[in-house]
Amino acid sequence: SLRRVGDYVLGDELGEGSFGKVKEGLVVKEGSEDFGMRVAVKIMSRRSIRKIKDGEKKLRKEIRCVRSVRHQNVIQLLDVIGLEDGQQVYLVFELANLFSIQNLLEAHAEHRREREDAGLLAPRHGLPSSMCREIFAQLMSGISACHSKGVVHRDIKPSNLLLNSDGLVKLVDFGSAERIDQFTSDMTQVVVGTPEFQLPEAARGLPFSMVLSDLWAAAVTLYVLLEEELPFQGDSIEELYSNIAAAKLALPACWSEEEKDLVGAMLRQAPEERLSLRSVLKHPWLQ
């Protein structure tokens, strides 16, 4: 029989994470204008939440963060079921399950390798420039909406960008997000997220701005879109962090001058020399 939760019937599994499963659902609330609408339902057991240090508190923070931003490039949380007392907690999101930008990069890289094996060399590695520009512009638009509400994402990377069937990029997974307000400073020394996307200050163990860490991770994401490779690498976490801290950047010769200028100016070692969010949005490459 079909499994019903609240106003939703659950269907196929869309994915699985450390927290639990994500399933596709349908709105079955009679008389609702959303009747029959497809949604994505993230299912977490109370037990798995409790296994995480401060799990309940973190989950409530994630819900608060994602609920406070309403923007077309940020995933929308539509409903929460079972938060107070359920054995399972269900987060109901809008459906944006075409694929992640990471999936797109991996598929593109595979095709490129097949062509190279056949002796057909591509002039450049990454996604087409116009596509990179469109994805990055939407990502920056989503980050701008978050920051204007005092929300920092803290784990921006291609696998946390989903594409929906309308060609909209959605920033997802606010599990590491923070809200900056009169009680919470933008400065921290707590590193969360993905090592390859950390900024130099964090790699050196210094206090850093969470707002700036989002911009840095967005720039690393843009580099990956354009080149299908990370700007800073290492065989160990120590080597990786040492390379990030030095921030010696090699920009591919095949990139346009505007691409080199934007990525180079966003990935400078000194925080005060990097482009601000406003300057990025006004950069000639995005116009």
- Gyration radius (Cα, Å) is 20 Å
Q: Strand share of the residues?
A: 15-25%
Q: Largest beta sheet: what is the strand line-up?
A: 1-2-3-4-6-5
Broad structural category: alpha+beta
CATH H-level superfamily of the largest domain: Transferase(Phosphotransferase) domain 1
Number of domains: 2
CATH architecture identity of the largest domain: Orthogonal Bundle
CATH class membership of the largest domain: Mainly Alpha
Shape: globular
Q: State the CATH topology of the largest domain.
A: Transferase(Phosphotransferase), domain 1
State the helicity in percent bands. 25-40%
Overall residue-averaged pLDDT value: 94
Number of helices: 9
Order of helices and strands: EEEEHHEEEHHEEEEEHEHHHH
Give the total of beta strands. Answer: 13
Distance between the termini: 52 Å
Unreliable stretches: none
How many strands, what sense, and barrel or not for the largest sheet?
6 strands, antiparallel
Domain Protein kinase: 8-286
Protein name: non-specific serine/threonine protein kinase
Pfam family, one: Pkinase
GO cellular component, one term: cytoplasm
Can you tell me about this structure?
This protein folds into 2 domains: 3-94, Phosphorylase Kinase, domain 1 (2-Layer Sandwich); 99-286, Orthogonal Bundle (Transferase(Phosphotransferase), domain 1). A 6-stranded antiparallel beta sheet has the order 1-2-3-4-6-5. The protein has a 3-stranded antiparallel beta sheet with strand order 7-9-10. Strands 8-11 form a two-stranded antiparallel ribbon. The protein is built from 9 helices and 13 strands. It has helices at residues 46-51, 55-67, 101-117, 129-148, 200-203, 210-227, 237-246, 257-266, 277-281, and strands at 3-5, 8-17, 20-27, 38-45, 77-81, 88-94, 99-100, 151-152, 161-163, 169-171, 178-179, 187-188, 208-209. It starts with a strand and ends in a 6-residue tail after the last helix. Helix content is 36%, strand content 20%. The mean pLDDT is 94. It is globular. With 287 residues, it is of the alpha+beta class.
